[in-house]
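Why Deaminase? Reviewers of the renewal asked for a concrete example.
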Amino acid sequence: MRDLTYYVAVSIDGYIAGPGGEFDRFLVEGDHAAPIWAKYGGTAPTALADAAGLSVEGSPFDTVLMGWNTYAVGLPGMPSPYRHLRQIVFTRGHQAPAGADGVEFIDRDPVDVVRELKAEEGKGVWLCGGGALAAVLRDEIDRLALKRNPVLFGAGIPLFESGDYDPAAFRPTAVTPFESGVTLAEYTRA
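Here is what the prediction returned.
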């Protein structure tokens, strides 16, 4: 059975993007970049990885899940951002833009879709955002991999959208601090 991993950059105060949806304060360069890429390779858009000379081979994931807002960050320039992965975008009302070859746009219950994906053969499934989708899938998330960045947003898109749900327990499997100030905190469901 495949695992669902929520792998995402997050501020110290728990936001995956600032009040205007910005995420440009997250550090992409520093001593954390190479070790994190070695562990979670293939988690950059294909064109950006190619431009940086990073191989997308050997990724722990073969499928990426996104809500519409996360997907739309790359529009119009990257309508198929993760061409090296199976791409699934959850949306209720948006149509596929031109050039979105290889992207599946789904208007179904994300929990049902994830359960089907977990039953398939393959590598891990990566939830790359956003906070609303993460909240819906909270009980299906097997692992958390949080690139905690040394910034405060104060407001914005939370790691998990608030809601009325039971607390879930996770246990840390690794916490790796870097000189850049980024800490990779990894957890598995308890």
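The chain is about 20% helix and 30% strand. This is the kind of structural detail the renewal will allow us to pursue systematically.
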